[in-house]
Structure formats: structure tokens, C-alpha cells
Specification:
The structure holds two protein chains of two kinds.
Chain A lengths: L14 H4 L2 H20 L26 E2 L14 H5 L5 E7 L7 E9 L8 H5 L5 E2 L16 E2 L1 H6 L14
Antiparallel strand pairs in A: 1-4, 2-3, 3-5
Chain B lengths: L2 H36 L19 H12 L12 H19 L5 E6 L2 E5 L7 H9 L2 H11 L3 H32 L4 H8 L2 E2 L3 E2 L2 H4 L1 H14 L24 H26 L10 H6 L1 H26 L12 H28 L3 H31 L7 H31 L1
Helix pairs in contact in B: 1-2, 1-10, 1-14, 3-4, 3-5, 3-10, 5-6, 6-9, 6-15, 9-10, 9-15, 10-14, 12-13
The chains are: A alpha+beta, B mainly alpha.
Chain lengths: 174, 430
């Protein structure tokens, strides 16, 4: 037991440390060095000059804007099971189901809307979906609009997005 | 008063107003860009007028427009004494501004046998004026905190008040030891004293003659201006925003700008009392005037080198990265600014050449005065940068630490320093 005890050294008792000034100058030397480096070459500062420069580090696991996936015949993969709406902690998914006529499944959403102003981008809907019908792999990280209504995305808009990382169709509903 | 005297007074007053007021946007910009660059980011650099960004200074003017156009809002719970909410920031701002007005920007200029002060208020009791007017600023802070009817504001105001009492004493005492050393209360005489040399090779700057009093003076002035690490009166991590919690729009902006004017004043006082004012080390005004040709030729060589360095720096840094396609007018800006700087350099060179070839005492003394003003401005900017660097390096003191430092360390040290100074001065004069 005693071997695991780590004694943390106490600082601040010597006269040099009580004087404060040496430590202050030490700190100022560091900040001044940063200032000087960055002034002498401001383009080397490691920042992203958004929006001229776009982020290049968005990976396939990035939770961007949602999309509804397709089947191979370009129809909607969703079966309107309401799992995502149930899992949603901010209650921002609105689904109205209807009967599916083409025989692939029994149900499909007549209406599927996500209020992105309410959404917290937690990804629970993606995890809950049994049909791999909703995904967040569009790579879109900024959504703009002129009114509140612009941020409520409907079924057509969600279907219009394509995956940014190669996976187009639903893996569960062919 | 003779005509040259009136002209000198008007020019130095205009210079004082410009140096204090026009410095505000520059300082706000310097603070924001400086903070950015210290923290390895860029700071505001986008705002421009027709492609001219001037490194981002234009942002400050945009800020001012925004603050002026904001709604004039008074909190509902303040029914009486709203005029005090207007008055409080004005007091802080004006006192800082007035305290700046006794700083000499150059040595006395002699025109037609008359020695004229290059000082906005030509008084010979500068340091007393600074101490008197400078400490009025806290009254504005106190009014602001009190009228807000808000516990955070009141806490901030009382912190500012008690800190002022705690630090005015070491400030006054350290100033006193400088008064003893320089044997004068006139800023200009102090600067003239500092242009001597110590042991033949050290410049007799206040910081070298009186290092302890100098350090105490700088620390107390930091406290006086309410800047980090002594910004407990604002203390936004503890008491919202301290005394200006309830202040909005231009009323807030006055407090905000007052802080920068106070910082500017403090750095001017530090330069004047500790770092040789408008003088370069080892060079007195007389040296410049008697060896005017050497001085002019040196300046004619040094000036193009500095301008070349600035232009090269601008060409390197005033451009976008290769990954960005749109230039945003930066190349054009660099070109225009380079041409302007080269033209100005050529004009200055021409004037200096004229003065060396056709010597005139009036022309050379005006040239020396202008050179000293330029030196003063450069030093002022360096010390403003020092203030900014300290703010972005040090964390804020806890309130009790501030009081502890003031009463238990600075006050006894400054008393001790006066004691030693007095003994040395008496010993030397015996």
C-alpha cells in the first residue's frame, strides 16, 4: 500500500518562489516567444481560416446532418417503426406512417421530419434504427436557413442527401 | 504669449488628445490580436474598408459603431439617479484622459530664445497632477457599482475602492522616493535627469537607479488601472462583471475605453519616470542638437532599413495561405501601404538632407523634437504591449492575495526604500 503513495511536491515555500517575479518573467518569456513566433510568420499559425478553408478531418464516424438511406431501387429504406422517435431524447423526430404498396415491406413513412433546432446530434436514432434507414454520415456540419421552418427537414430533403463516405444504400434493407 | 508659444501649446495639446484617444482603437486591436497570437490563434483580421484591413484595426471602428448604435438601456430596478449611470463612466474616462495630459512628449523646444514645453498641459508639477487626477477614476467605478443596485456591482466597486486605498499608498511612497532621487516633481526635469549616465556607461534610468521603487511603481500602476492580474473589480469568474454588470452600449464602452486610456496613461508614466521618457539611452537633447549632422545622417541610414524590414514583413505576412483562393485585396493593400511608406521615408530623408546641407537652429530643434516624439510613441507602444503580455500571461490574484501583497509587502518595502533613499541622498549631499 505504502508503495503506491505518491508524494506530491509542495512548491511556493522558497524565497525565490515567494518573490513571484522570477516565475512571472518565466511565464512571460513563454508567451512572448509564442507572440514573436506567430508575428514573424502568421500564416504558420495552426488555425483553419473558415470558410475559405474547409475542415479536412471529418471522418466517417463524424455525426453530421442526418439522412434517410435508400434501398437498391432508390426507394426509402425506412419502415416507420418509430424506434428512432422513441429513442430520441429531444423528441425532434416526427413520423407519420402509411402502408407500403410495392410489396417490399408493409409500412413506410408518409411523413418524416427532423427539427434540427431541437436535435442535439446524439446519434441515438442511428443506433436505434433496425433497418439502417437513418444515418448521420452526410459530413454536413453547418446548416443555415432564414426562418425556423427552414430547419425542419422533411422526408424528401433527408432522402436527397447522399453519404459522404461511400456507403449509399441501407445495409439492412436491400 | 508669443505666436510660437501658442502654436506649440496647440500642437502638443492636439498630440496629447490624439495619443490618448486614437490609441484606444489601436490598443483594443493590439489586445485582441496580441491575445490571439499569444494563444496561437489569429484574432480579428477580417473587417475591412474596401480591402484595407490594416492588420485588423478596422475591427475596432466597427466595434465602436456597434456600441454607439446599441439600445440605450437602463435596468428597471434603477428608478432614481439614472444620470449617475451616465456620469460614472465619464468620470473614469475623463480622469484617465486628463492624467495623460501632463506627460512630456519631447524636451523643451527653444524657439526665438523662448523655452517651450511640449506637454499638453504645460505645468511643472506633473507628478502631483497625475496622482491627484489619476485616483479620481475610482470614484466613477464606485458610482457605477453603487447606482447599479446589484450585489455583484457593489462587490466589484468596493473591491476597486479598497484596492485603490491599498495600492495608492505604495504608489505614492515609491513616487516619493523618485521625487527625492530626481529632486523634482516635474516630469520633464525627471526625464532630463534620466538622460545622464551612471558610472559613465549605464543610462541613469529610474529603473536602474531605483529598481525596488520602480518595481513597486509598476505593480501599483497595474493595480491602479484595474488590469490583470489585479482585475478583481471586474472579476468575471466570480462576480459576473463587477462594477459594470448593469452597463450597456456606450455607457459600458466608456468604462471599457477608460480602462485602455488608463493603461496608456500608466505606460506613459512608467516610461517617463522609469525608462528615460522620450530620450534614447546615452543621448541627451544637447548631444542631438550639437551633433545634428551625425544624428541626421544616422537617421537617414537607419530609417530606410526599418522601413524595408517592415515592408518585407508585410509582404510575408499580409497574404493568404496557398490553400485559399480568394486574396481579399491583401496584395493591393500591401502595395498601397508600401508605396505610402516609401513616399513618407523619401520625404523625411529629403527634409533631413535639406537640414544638414542648409543648417538652421530652428529646423534642427524641430527635427529633434519630432524625433523625440517618435521615440516616445515607440516606447509607449512597447509598454502597452507589456501590459497586454502580462494580462495574457498571469492568472488573476485572489482578492485577499491582492490586499495581502499591497499591505504586507509593497507598503513596508516602499517605506524601507524611502528610508534608504533619504539616507543616501543626505550622505551624498554632505
Amino acid at each position: 500500500m505504502s508503495q503506491r503513495v505518491k508524494v506530491v511536491p509542495r512548491y511556493g515555500d522558497t524565497n525565490k518562489e515567494k518573490l513571484y517575479l522570477p516565475a512571472i518573467f518565466k511565464g512571460m518569456k513563454i508567451t512572448f516567444k509564442h507572440l514573436l513566433d506567430n508575428v514573424s510568420d502568421s500564416n504558420a499559425v495552426d488555425t483553419l481560416e473558415y470558410p475559405e478553408e474547409q475542415p479536412s478531418d471529418i471522418t466517417s464516424r463524424y455525426r453530421g446532418l442526418h439522412r434517410l438511406t435508400h434501398r437498391e431501387d432508390e426507394t426509402i429504406a425506412c419502415v416507420a417503426c418509430f424506434m428512432c422517435a422513441t429513442a430520441c431524447p429531444s423528441k425532434c423526430i416526427f413520423i407519420e406512417a402509411t402502408e407500403r404498396e410495392d410489396g417490399q415491406d408493409e409500412k413506410m413513412p408518409k411523413l418524416f421530419a427532423i427539427d434540427t433546432l431541437e436535435c442535439i446530434f446524439c446519434g441515438f436514432c442511428v443506433e436505434a434504427c433496425p433497418c439502417d434507414a437513418i444515418r448521420m454520415d452526410t459530413g454536413i456540419f453547418s446548416l443555415t436557413g432564414n426562418s425556423r421552418e427552414d430547419f425542419v427537414l422533411g422526408k424528401e430533403q433527408l432522402l436527397s442527401y447522399r453519404g459522404a463516405f461511400g456507403e449509399e444504400t441501407s445495409c439492412a434493407r436491400k | 504669449m508669443s505666436t510660437p508659444a501658442i502654436i506649440v501649446v496647440i500642437i502638443s495639446f492636439a498630440l496629447g488628445a490624439i495619443l490618448a484617444l486614437l490609441m484606444i482603437p489601436v490598443l483594443v486591436w493590439l489586445e485582441r490580436r496580441g491575445a490571439g497570437l499569444i494563444q496561437d490563434r489569429l484574432g480579428p483580421n477580417r473587417t475591412n474598408v474596401g480591402g484595407f484591413r490594416l492588420g485588423g484595426v478596422v475591427q475596432s471602428f466597427a466595434d465602436v459603431i456597434k456600441l454607439v448604435l446599441k439600445e440605450e438601456y437602463y435596468p428597471k430596478h434603477i428608478s432614481k439617479g439614472r444620470w449617475l449611470m451616465m456620469l460614472a463612466p465619464v468620470i473614469t474616462f475623463v480622469s484617465a484622459l486628463l492624467a495623460f495630459m501632463v506627460i512630456p512628449f519631447a524636451d523643451n523646444i527653444t524657439i526665438a530664445g523662448e523655452s517651450l514645453r511640449v506637454q499638453p498641459l504645460p505645468v511643472d508639477y506633473g507628478i502631483l497632477w497625475f496622482l491627484a487626477i489619476g485616483s479620481i477614476g475610482v470614484i466613477g467605478i464606485f458610482f457605477g457599482g453603487w447606482i447599479s443596485h446589484n450585489k455583484y456591482s457593489l462587490l466589484g466597486a468596493s473591491r476597486a475602492g479598497s484596492m485603490m486605498i491599498g495600492y495608492e499608498l505604495p504608489l505614492g511612497l515609491s513616487v516619493l522616493s523618485f521625487v527625492l532621487t530626481y529632486n523634482s516633481i516635474d516630469f520633464n526635469t525627471m526625464v532630463q535627469w534620466q538622460s545622464q549616465t551612471l558610472f559613465g556607461f549605464l543610462p541613469a534610468w529610474g529603473m536602474i537607479v531605483q529598481p525596488l521603487a520602480g518595481t513597486i511603481l509598476i505593480i501599483s500602476l497595474f493595480a491602479e488601472t484595474n488590469r490583470a492580474p489585479f482585475s478583481v473589480a471586474e472579476g468575471e469568474s466570480e462576480i459576473v462583471a463587477g462594477f459594470f454588470t448593469e452597463f450597456t452600449a456606450m455607457k459600458f464602452a466608456m468604462f471599457f475605453m477608460g480602462e485602455y486610456v488608463a493603461m496608456n496613461t500608466a505606460s506613459a508614466v512608467i516610461i517617463t519616470m522609469l525608462f528615460g521618457g522620450y530620450q534614447l539611452p546615452w543621448v541627451t537633447t544637447d548631444t542631438l542638437l550639437t551633433n545634428f549632422n551625425t544624428f541626421a545622417w544616422t537617421l537617414m541610414v537607419v530609417l530606410p532599413i526599418i522601413v524595408t524590414l517592415i515592408i518585407r514583413w508585410m509582404r510575408k505576412n499580409n497574404r493568404v495561405r496557398p490553400t485559399v483562393t480568394s486574396d481579399g485585396g491583401r496584395a493591393f493593400e500591401t502595395k498601397v501601404l508600401s508605396i505610402a511608406m516609401i513616399t513618407m521615408t523619401l520625404i523625411v530623408e529629403g527634409i533631413l538632407l535639406y537640414l544638414t546641407l542648409i543648417p538652421s537652429p530652428l529646423g534642427s530643434s524641430i527635427a529633434v523634437t519630432l524625433f523625440q516624439i517618435a521615440t516616445f510613441v515607440v516606447k509607449l507602444m512597447i509598454f502597452n504591449l507589456f501590459f497586454i503580455l502580462v494580462r495574457w500571461t498571469l492568472p488573476r490574484f485572489r482578492y485577499d492575495q491582492v490586499q495581502h501583497l499591497g499591505w504586507y509587502y509593497l507598503l513596508p518595502l516602499s517605506l524601507f526604500n524611502i528610508f534608504v533613499t533619504a539616507i543616501v541622498i543626505v550622505g551624498v549631499s554632505l
